[in-house]
């Protein structure tokens, strides 16, 4: 094989591994693939930066962001650790319950500054408020959506036969982190 042929094969393997869930061998919905995170998150980040610094827009953008995060976490979780709809809703509510109050609190603390801010200063303040609240909400979302994996562990497949060698909570912690 030539270097070019090897490169083509590696590229194809990379595309397949990003688009197919390793547990089910079924395609992951495009928006929830790890490789789609940047193109999907870009409009959300733009919304965070350009939205007016009001309570409505703060809550609206955090809800959009955490909805996307929940889908991303669900699409990439271990399908061998089954989750109920309740588990998924709990994760989503935990993410909203952390990101929305945090962003509102920061927004209220900065209210005097943002009321007078325009242009680049307003843009930077919007980014700081949104990113700090989103980061905390994202961690809560990931931990809660994937709590079943942390509680029960994930299957460790045999490298050659793919049969389960048992469940590991340590592997689950590494996968979730």
Elements, N to C (H/E): HHHHHHHEEH
Helix run count: 8
Instruction: Give the distance, in angstroms, between the N- and C-terminal Cα atoms.
Output: 38 Å
Mean pLDDT over the full residue set = 79
Number of strands: 2
Q: Decide which structural class fits the backbone.
A: mainly alpha
Q: Beta-sheet strand percentage?
A: 5-15%
Overall 3D geometry? globular
Main-sheet strand order equals: 1-2
Task: Write down the Rg.
Answer: 20 Å
Residue runs with pLDDT of under 50 for 5 or more positions: none
Classify the helix fraction into a percent range: over 70%
For the largest beta-sheet, the strand count, sense and barrel status come to: 2 strands, antiparallel
Key words describing this protein structure:
177 residues; 70% helix; mainly alpha
What does it look like?
By secondary structure, the protein is mostly helical. It has helices spanning 3-19, 37-50, 55-75, 85-109, 111-116, 119-145, 147-152, 169-176; strands at 154-157, 164-168. It has a domain at 55-67 and 82-154 and 161-177. It is built from 8 helices and 2 strands. It has a two-stranded antiparallel sheet. Helix 2 (37-50) runs antiparallel to helix 3. It starts with a helix and ends with a helix.
List the helices and strands and how they pair.
Layout: H1 3-19, H2 37-50, H3 55-75, H4 85-109, H5 111-116, H6 119-145, H7 147-152, E1 154-157, E2 164-168, H8 169-176
Antiparallel strand pairs: 1-2
Helix pairs in contact: 2-3, 2-6, 3-4, 3-6, 4-6
């Amino acid at each position: 094989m030539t270097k070019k042929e090897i490169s083509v094969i590696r590229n194809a393997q990379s595309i397949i591994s990003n688009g197919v869930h390793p547990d089910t061998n079924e395609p992951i919905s495009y928006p929830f693939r790890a490789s789609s995170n940047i193109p999907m998150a870009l409009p959300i980040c733009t919304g965070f930066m350009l939205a007016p610094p009001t309570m409505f827009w703060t809550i609206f953008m955090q809800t959009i962001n955490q909805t996307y995060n929940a889908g991303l976490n669900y699409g990439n979780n271990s399908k061998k650790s089954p989750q109920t709809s309740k588990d998924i809703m709990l994760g989503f509510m935990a993410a909203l319950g952390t990101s929305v109050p945090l962003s509102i609190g920061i927004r209220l603390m900065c209210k005097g500054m943002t009321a007078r801010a325009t242009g680049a200063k307003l843009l930077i303040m919007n980014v700081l408020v949104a990113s700090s609240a989103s980061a905390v909400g994202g961690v809560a979302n990931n931990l809660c959506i994937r709590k079943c994996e942390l509680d029960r562990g994930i299957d460790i497949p045999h490298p050659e036969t793919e049969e389960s060698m048992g469940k590991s909570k340590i592997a689950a912690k590494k996968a979730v982190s």
